[in-house]
């Protein structure tokens, strides 16, 4: 029953966010794998609409935080407020205490705000003063970056990038999809019902996560998954190009992320076992923000996606 509702949610999201099926599936995979995602795209590609639509499909609340250079950690986490009538400090929760968080233009916030968000993402808690407050059990951050403008931005530290289970890159829709977007917008202006969905309960989501973790992976595919990550740490073993292009590879957190997302993708596609395509299709979003490329790669105009393609070309499936 829960799986049927998840399929309905997937259908609903694809009706509400046209031409962005990768974003829809990535959101659902992150939800099933209990992770956070980083989305990079030009403005206007329905990122806010996507996370908002997801909040309609689950038993959870949504909050958008606009990151700016003057943002303070307390603007995100909350702060202690002195109540004169009682003579005591009372903690007022900040916007981070919601189930779904849109961290809009996350790279515009300074280091202290990034640190506060890192604790929330990694530890599922917030510390204010000497007191630590737990975040909701169902907690997902979707952060966005605008690749077109870098002025006034603060590059995310590697430790924080590593906390995102996936890094998604979006591009503009084609002409046919653009026409459908116009029609959808017209319906919404006229207040016509576009689609509806029955929200998933938190207990159903937690149950689905348990089912995802029970998805089986054959030993040779497990070894293949490990070899793909090892290729980023020992690139010389897998060819001269990789040796020249990669300075630092992915951590064991990447291995765990690739395993979890591969299982989630398999389960989302009605399978209880992992196939090579589940691993390969997730390799790009799992690795592209975790690789540190060499000066030679940058000088040659090589990006992370090209490095990952070379890894796929060089690493064979054992057995």
Automatic annotation (TrEMBL):
Top-level taxonomic group: Bacteria
Domain ChlI/MoxR AAA lid: 246-311
Domain ATPase AAA-3 per the UniProt entry, residue ranges: 36-166
Cross-referenced Pfam families: AAA_3 (PF07726), AAA_lid_2 (PF17863)
Gene3D superfamilies the UniProt entry points to: Magnesium chelatase subunit I, C-Terminal domain (1.10.8.80), P-loop containing nucleotide triphosphate hydrolases (3.40.50.300)
InterPro entries xref list: ATPase_AAA-3, CbbQ/NirQ/NorQ/GpvN, ChlI/MoxR_AAA_lid, P-loop_NTPase
Protein name in UniProt: MoxR family ATPase
Source species of the chain: Psychromonas arctica
């Amino acid at each position: 029953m829960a799986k049927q509702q998840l399929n309905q949610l997937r259908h609903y999201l694809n009706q509400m966010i046209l031409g962005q099926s990768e974003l829809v599936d990535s959101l659902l995979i992150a939800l099933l794998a209990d992770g956070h995602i980083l989305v990079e795209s030009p403005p206007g590609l329905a990122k806010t609409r996507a996370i908002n639509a997801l909040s309609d499909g689950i038993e959870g609340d949504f909050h958008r935080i606009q990151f700016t250079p003057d943002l303070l950690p307390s603007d995100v986490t909350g702060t202690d407020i002195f109540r004169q009538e009682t003579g005591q400090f009372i903690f007022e929760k900040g916007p981070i205490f919601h189930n779904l968080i849109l961290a809009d233009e996350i790279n515009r916030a300074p280091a202290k705000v990034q640190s506060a968000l890192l604790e929330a993402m990694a530890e599922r808690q917030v510390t204010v003063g000497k007191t630590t407050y737990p975040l909701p059990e169902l907690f997902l951050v979707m952060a966005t970056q605008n690749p077109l403008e870098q002025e006034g931005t603060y590059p995310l530290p590697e430790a924080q990038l590593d906390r995102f289970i996936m890094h998604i890159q979006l591009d503009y829709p084609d002409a046919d999809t653009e026409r459908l977007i116009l029609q959808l917008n017209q319906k919404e202006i006229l207040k016509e019902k576009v689609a509806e969905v029955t929200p998933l309960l938190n207990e159903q989501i937690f149950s689905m996560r348990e089912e995802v973790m029970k998805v089986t992976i054959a030993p040779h595919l497990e070894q293949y998954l490990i070899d793909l990550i090892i290729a980023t740490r020992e690139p010389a073993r897998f060819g001269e190009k990789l040796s020249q292009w990669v300075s630092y590879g992915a951590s064991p957190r990447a291995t765990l992320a690739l395993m979890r997302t591969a299982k989630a993708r398999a389960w989302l596609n009605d399978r209880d076992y992992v196939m090579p395509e589940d691993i390969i299709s997730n390799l790009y979003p799992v690795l592209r923000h975790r690789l540190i490329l060499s000066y030679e790669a940058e000088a040659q105009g090589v990006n992370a996606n090209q490095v990952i393609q070379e890894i796929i070309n060089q690493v064979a499936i054992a057995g």
